């Protein structure tokens, strides 16, 4: 029996997210998977084409409506629930988009959800982190139940290109609720790599002392082409904006290089970086828990060390 | 009456270092400190502030779980909630069941707003609020870092991956809260004494007409893989050299 998997695309109206390609990679691990990607957008053309080019995707469905110019869970969920009937699995990324909309879809389908899938053991058996990653749980969904899940994107590489799926328009007659309206979004615009997908991340904690103090991290990040991250303590203190937060309740990332600077390493922070290839810790306190997970540790004053690193890279 | 319902969960305290049972059947919770889920505490704090501003007349807290949950409900009453509802059960409760039970309480209490944490820090599911909103067929605003109520509407600022998003929802609706919405108050001793006299109603799960369905079966719990022990370097030059050697700089 083949498994029919529906993946809800995350996108910025013109760009499909890397997280969606990672959902495809996760879905491809389900035996006999037949993968469909659905794009809800005001104008789905560009995003649908990108989804159709992913390896292992056999079909792309588009649902177009002006109201989908901004992704609102309350509007998307009924569309996807109406479409989900003939699918065995419905997946979305474990981003704030997917975390918002997927449980709403699951409830509309009267099914439980498996959040943050990090490994597929079979079509009904999945592994996921609980307790901020301090335990891993393998969970089995009842036979015959529709499976709805979010994919922990840090656990997967994006599906490669090379596919050529067909694109089909879906005419939806689902009434869109009017009780939820988009007002605005504020996002810092910069030329740095995206924190979620960057190969290198320079991240700062409370020890930076101020938003001003964070500037030395931005300088180092720009020198090595890294994204900037922050601990919860640094974001709470107002040194860095919320979208930079790394950890259990922020972003879960898996860069090649993670430089934790002035971060003590609370368990909730470590859960966000445990898949990083190489972790560097720079901290004044030699007893800081970050050193227990660091591949390379340096005990020292970050305000001396960071400018020194920068200088060494200049020559 | 203008009422806010706050969903709370009893969880292992966030400072406890979690250990998996050697036989892989769960995590060790015997003798471990239990607390109100920290996100739910923020939800309750917000409800109390809305009431103190005159935006609500009553704050009701509700939870689902075994008898011990009453300790956490008493904490919430000491914080300032007016009443507590305890749906009592020893069964394992999936998020969808929790949402169905909360819906029953919503139908009974008719709140104009339901608040709860964006996730519980034990299972990290992050589902119940959205599921309740879906079953109730009402709006949801997740990951709230700012909440403004204006008559029949609410403006909610949400912490999303891109930054901060603001949406407007019609009430009643469900708002799940993020860390930076507020800082919960400390409970004072006289309030703990007063809380003992506040109403706490126990409702047997079976009387609500909801089945504790077990659609997801835990198969195995295991500790995460440990990282290999790293090296220490003594200065910036050694660090840069080590990173260059790994091809990272």
Polypeptide structure, described:
The complex is a heterodimer of chains A (315) and B (249). Chain A contains 9 helices and 16 strands. With 315 residues, chain A is α/β, with parallel strands linked by helices. Chain A has 2 domains: 3-169, Rossmann fold; 200-314, TPP-binding domain (Rossmann fold), CATH 3.40.50.1220. Chain A starts with a strand and ends with a helix. The model of chain A has no long low-confidence stretch (mean pLDDT 96). Chain B has a single domain (3-245), classed as Rossmann fold, CATH 3.40.50.620. In chain B, 46% of the residues are buried. The chains are: A alpha/beta (315), B alpha/beta (249).
Give the secondary structure arrangement, pairings included.
The complex is a heterodimer of chains A (315) and B (249).
Chain A lengths: L2 E6 L9 H11 L4 E9 L3 H8 L4 E8 L8 H11 L5 E5 L2 H13 L4 E5 L1 E2 L4 E6 L4 E7 L5 E5 L14 E4 L10 E7 L13 E5 L10 H10 L2 E4 L1 H5 L20 E5 L5 H4 L7 E6 L6 H4 L2 E4 L2 H13 L1
Parallel strand pairs in A: 1-2, 1-4, 2-3, 3-10, 4-9, 5-9, 12-13, 12-14, 14-15, 15-16
Antiparallel strand pairs in A: 6-7, 7-8
Helix pairs in contact in A: 3-4, 5-9
Chain B lengths: L2 E5 L2 E3 L21 E3 L1 H15 L5 E8 L3 H11 L3 E6 L6 H15 L3 E5 L10 H9 L3 E11 L2 E8 L2 E8 L2 E5 L11 H7 L4 E5 L11 E7 L8 E3 L2 H10 L4
Helix pairs in contact in B: 2-5, 3-4
Short description:
The complex is a heterodimer of chains A (315) and B (249). In chain A, 25% of the residues lie in helices and 28% in strands.
Question: Which terms would index this structure?
Answer:
heterodimer, A: 315 residues, Rossmann fold, 2 domains, 7-stranded parallel beta sheet, 16 strands, 25% helix, B: alpha/beta
How many helices of chain A? The count is 9
Q: What form of chain B results from the Cα inertia axes?
A: globular
CATH superfamily of the largest domain in chain A: HUPs
The stretches of 5 or more residues of chain B where confidence is low (pLDDT under 50) are none
Q: Mind telling me the C-alpha Rg of chain B?
A: 21 Å
Whole-Å distance between the termini of chain A?
61 Å
Question: What would the average pLDDT of chain B be, to the nearest integer?
Answer: 96
Q: Major sheet of chain A, described briefly?
A: 7 strands, parallel
> Helix/strand-derived class of chain B?
alpha/beta
**Total beta-strand segments of chain A:** 16
**Structural class, from helix and strand content of chain A?**
alpha/beta
Highest CATH level, the class of chain B: Alpha Beta
Question: What is the string of helix and strand elements of chain A?
Answer: EHEHEHEHEEEEEEEEHEHEHEHEH
Q: What's the pLDDT, averaged over the residues of chain A?
A: 96
Distance between the termini of chain B: 63 Å
Q: Tell me the strand order in the biggest sheet of chain B.
A: 9-8-7-10-6-1-4-5-11
* Total count of helical runs of at least 4 residues of chain B: 6
Summarize the biggest pleated sheet of chain B: 9 strands, mixed
Which percent range describes the beta-strand content of chain A?
A: 25-35%
Q: In CATH terms, what is the fold-level topology of the largest domain in chain A?
A: Rossmann fold
């Amino acid at each position: 029996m083949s498994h029919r998997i529906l993946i809800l695309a995350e996108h910025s109206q013109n760009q499909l997210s890397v997280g969606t390609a990672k959902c495809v990679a996760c879905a491809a691990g389900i035996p006999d998977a037949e993968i469909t990607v659905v794009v809800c957008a005001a104008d789905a053309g560009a995003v649908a084409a990108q989804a159709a080019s992913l390896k292992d995707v056999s079909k792309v469905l588009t649902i177009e409506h002006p109201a989908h110019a901004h992704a609102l869970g309350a509007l998307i969920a009924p569309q996807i629930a109406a479409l989900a009937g003939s699918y065995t699995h419905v997946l979305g990324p474990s981003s704030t988009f997917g975390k918002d909309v997927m449980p709403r879809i699951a409830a509309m389908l009267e099914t439980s959800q498996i959040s943050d899938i990090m490994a597929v053991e079979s079509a009904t058996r999945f592994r996921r982190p609980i307790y901020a990653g301090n335990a891993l749980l393998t969970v089995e969904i009842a036979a015959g139940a529709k499976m709805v899940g979010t994919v922990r994107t840090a656990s997967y590489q994006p599906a490669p290109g090379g596919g050529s799926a067909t694109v089909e328009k879906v005419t939806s007659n689902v009434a869109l609720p009017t009780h939820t309206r988009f007002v605005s979004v504020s996002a810092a615009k910069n030329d740095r790599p995206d924190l979620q997908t960057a190969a290198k991340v320079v991240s700062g904690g409370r020890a930076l002392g101020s938003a001003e103090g964070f500037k030395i991290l931005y300088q180092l990040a720009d020198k090595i082409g890294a994204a900037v991250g922050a601990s919860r303590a640094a974001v709470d203190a107002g040194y860095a904006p919320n979208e930079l937060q790394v950890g259990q309740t922020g972003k879960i990332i898996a860069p090649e290089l993670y430089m934790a600077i002035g971060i003590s390493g609370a368990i909730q922070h470590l859960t966000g970086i445990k898949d990083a290839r190489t972790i560097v810790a720079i901290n004044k306190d030699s007893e800081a828990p970050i050193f227990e997970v660091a591949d390379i540790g340096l005990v020292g004053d970050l305000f001396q060390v960071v400018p020194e690193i920068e200088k060494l890279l200049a020559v | 009456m203008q009422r806010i319902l706050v969903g709370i969960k009893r969880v292992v305290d966030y400072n406890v270092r979690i250990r998996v049972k050697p036989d892989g059947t769960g995590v060790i919770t015997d003798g471990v400190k239990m607390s109100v889920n920290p996100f739910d505490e923020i939800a309750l704090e917000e409800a109390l502030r809305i009431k103190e501003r005159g935006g609500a007349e009553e704050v009701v807290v509700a939870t689902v779980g075994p008898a011990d949950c009453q300790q956490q409900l008493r904490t919430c009453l000491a914080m300032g909630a007016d009443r507590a509802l305890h749906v009592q059960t020893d069964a394992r409760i999936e998020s969808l069941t929790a949402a169905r039970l909360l819906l029953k309480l919503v139908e009974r209490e008719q709140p104009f707003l339901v608040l709860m944490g964006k996730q519980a820090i034990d299972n990290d599911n992050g589902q119940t609020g959205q599921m309740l909103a879906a079953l109730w067929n009402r709006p949801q605003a997740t990951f709230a870092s700012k909440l403004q109520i204006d008559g029949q509407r609410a403006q909610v600022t949400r912490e999303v991956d891109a930054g901060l998003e603001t949406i407007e929802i019609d009430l009643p609706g469900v708002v799940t809260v993020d860390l930076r919405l507020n800082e919960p108050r400390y409970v004072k001793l006289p309030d703990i004494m007063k809380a003992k006299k506040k109403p706490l109603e126990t409702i047997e799960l079976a009387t609500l007409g909801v089945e504790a369905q077990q659609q997801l079966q835990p198969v195995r719990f295991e500790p995460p893989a440990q990282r290999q022990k790293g090296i220490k370097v003594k200065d910036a030059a050694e660090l840069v050299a080590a990173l260059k050697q790994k091809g990272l700089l």
